[in-house]
Amino acid sequence: MKYLKKSLIGKEPYYSKEISSGIILNANESAFETPKEIIELVKKELDKVDLRRYPDTDNTLIRESIANAYGLDITNVTIGVGSDQLLDCIFKSLIDDEHIVSCNPTFSMYKEYASFTNGKFIDIDFKDDINFEFDTEKIIEAIKKYNPKLVIICSPNNPTGSAIERSNLEKIIIAANEINSVVLLDEAYSEFHETNYDLIKKYDNLFVLKTFSKAYALAGIRLGYMIACKDLIDTINVVKPPYNMSRLSSIIASIAIKNKNLYDENIKKIINLKNELFDDLQKLGLKPVKSYSNFIFLKLNDKIFDYLIENKIYIRRLKYKNEFWHRITVGTKEENDILIAKLKDSIM
Ligand SMILES: Cc1ncc(COP(=O)(O)O)c(C=O)c1O
Fold first, then answer.
1. Is 16 a residue whose pLDDT tops 90?
2. Considering the domain 50-258, what is its CATH architecture?
């Protein structure tokens, strides 16, 4: 990469071969297809779309649909190509070379985006490696000590599945507010547990990040959104590219959020399947972490991971404290049963 700029030397290009067959449990997508009723509504709308024209750069249709779903004003919402694009925008608009307080382990892309703007991470461990409970006191200590520009809380947290209690979240937001620091609450998986989005009405230093990629079974349309007070939303919109969202994606997401009750049954099923999978993993003598999301975190030995790949079962492997841990997305009943059978084979 002879033309790569100096500050990026040492970074590798991001390539990841698409896996299109087998049992895919590595990206926390929904176990179930988008509901048929949503697809039928989308088909009806498609006839009317004028693809010749650029999309509305203000993303009015989808922002209005989201604002209505949450009882907020449209000025409290902005849209990104996946919540990933909004993460990029947060770092671009907030961070030059300041500190960022976050937890370890958490979603790896925070560090990737922060590295483009020289952000310096202070990683706070969870209370232990059994339940991975958030260590609120240590997070607040770090806020006081390092004066970070940004504090990131992912709840439920990817990859551990643990969730922060609302009262502790508020303590962190208040501590951050006292030093003029912003809190990013990443709720990519909140539909599987609970949302604290309403705290944006109380605190003007809180961003809440959400996505259609997980519970809404729409990872393919790449649409994420951010909820915050108008001033924080404007901050993001300073760096957000114009025309960033396609008309098609906006229409699909808008139909999905207007009909969000159509997802309730699948979300309940995924939570039940997660609980079953957790019990089955425990019965195999494994130690899964209690999860409030649609995935489960645990340690497996390397031979097991390789054996699963040989059998076309794909889970996510992550390095944490110099050991390999694994994150398994909850699949359908059939997929989970095959996974458990193969795990049994490889353990026996
Ligand atoms: C915690 C968290 N935040 C954000 C994202 C990005 O999601 P998307 O860009 O699909 O909205 C992910 C994806 O896995 C995630 O796990």
1. no
2. 3-Layer(aba) Sandwich (3.40)
Can you give the C-alpha Rg of the chain in angstroms? 20
- In one-letter notation, the amino acid at residue 65 is S
- Residue 147 CB neighbour total at 10 angstroms: 13
Q: Can you tell me the distance from the alpha carbon of 110 to that of 115, in angstroms, rounded to the nearest whole number?
A: 9
Q: Where are the domains of the chain?
A: 50-258, 263-347
Ligand 1 touching residue 190 (CB < 6 A): no
Kindly report the CATH number that applies to the domain delimited by 263-347: 3.90.1150.10
Residue among 109, 195, 249 whose CB has most ligand 1 atoms within 8 A, to mutate: 109
Query: Per mean pLDDT, which range of 136-150, 157-171, 295-309 is the poorest?
Result: 295-309
- Tokens for 228, please give them: 């915050």
Atom of ligand 1 nearest to the CA of 211: 11
Average pLDDT over residues 152-169: 98
Please tell me the predicted confidence (pLDDT) of residue 323. Answer: 93
- Whether ligand 1 lies within 6 angstroms of the CB of 158 is answered as yes
Residue nearest to atom 9 of ligand 1 (CA): 82
* Ligand 1 neighbour 318 (Cβ under 6 A): no
Pocket test for ligand 1, best of 29, 84, 191 (most atoms within 8 A of CB): 84
Q: The whole model's pTM is what?
A: 0.97
Question: pLDDT (tens digit, 9 = 90+) per residue, 18-65?
Answer: 998 999 999 999 999 999 999 999 999 998 999 999 999 999 999 999
From residue 285, alpha-carbon distances to 306, 320, 338 in Å are 19, 21, 17
Closest C-alpha to 253, from 78, 61, 48, 121: 61
When the pLDDT of each residue in the chain is averaged and rounded to a whole number, the result is 96
